[in-house]
């Protein structure tokens, strides 16, 4: 399957999800891109000359409602302002709208783009998407999930919202009226 066909398949899956009233898991992500970035970890090593730092062990990054967890991260901070965060190992990107996991992530803060790699799994409620690469544009809320190689495939499972059962017209405990029998 060509990449064009993969993209068309993804768009079709997304359209199907929209028709089934499945909310976009990326809507609202990136609204907090002007908020401070907080990083916690078990240890950190900074290279002041190269304006980089590496955080290791139980790493947590927060920016507004956007959360990133991983084993390690490396940051580039030109003149004290973080421009890039690279995460490796057990990466989890979460927001109130959903969660994505993978083995690596790259957050380009100036472009407001997050790229996840590895065995990517995107979850929102009961809905699940799987692939090998996920690119999320936080400014637009648009995401692209792809499979590996020329024949790579993505997988999506969308669970429609349950519709309430239509109540009978008879009051509770009474049997519905039956038409009179004909003589």
Tell me what you see in this structure.
The protein has 183 residues and is mainly β. The protein has one domain (3-157): Lipopolysaccharide (LPS) transport protein A like domain (lipopolysaccharide transport protein A fold), CATH 2.60.450. It is built from 1 helix and 10 strands; from the N terminus they run αββββββββββ. It has one helix spanning 3-19; strands spanning 38-40, 43-47, 52-63, 66-78, 81-95, 98-108, 113-124, 127-137, 142-146, 155-157. Strands 1, 2, 3, 4, 5, 6, 7, 8, 9 and 10 form a 10-stranded antiparallel beta sheet that branches. Strand 3 and strand 4 (66-78) form a beta hairpin. The longest helix has 17 residues, at 3-19. Residues 1-24 have low confidence and may be disordered.
């Amino acid at each position: 399957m060509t990449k064009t066909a993969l993209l068309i398949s993804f768009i079709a899956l997304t359209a199907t999800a929209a028709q089934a009233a499945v909310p976009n898991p990326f809507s609202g992500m990136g609204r907090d891109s002007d908020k401070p970035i907080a990083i916690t970890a078990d240890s950190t090593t900074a290279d002041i000359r190269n304006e980089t730092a590496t955080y290791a062990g139980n790493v947590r990054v927060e920016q507004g409602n956007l959360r990133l967890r991983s084993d390690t991260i490396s940051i580039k901070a030109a003149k004290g302002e973080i421009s890039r965060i690279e995460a490796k190992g057990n990466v989890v990107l979460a927001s109130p709208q959903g969660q994505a996991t993978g083995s690596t992530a790259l957050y380009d803060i100036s472009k407001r783009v997050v790229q996840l790699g590895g065995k990517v799994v995107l979850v929102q409620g009961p809905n699940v998407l799987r692939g090998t690469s996920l690119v999320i544009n936080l400014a637009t809320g648009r995401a692209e999930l792809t499979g590996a190689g020329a024949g790579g495939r993505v997988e999506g499972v969308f669970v429609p919202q349950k519709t309430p059962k239509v109540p009978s017209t008879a009051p509770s405990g009474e049997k519905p009226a039956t038409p009179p029998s004909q003589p």
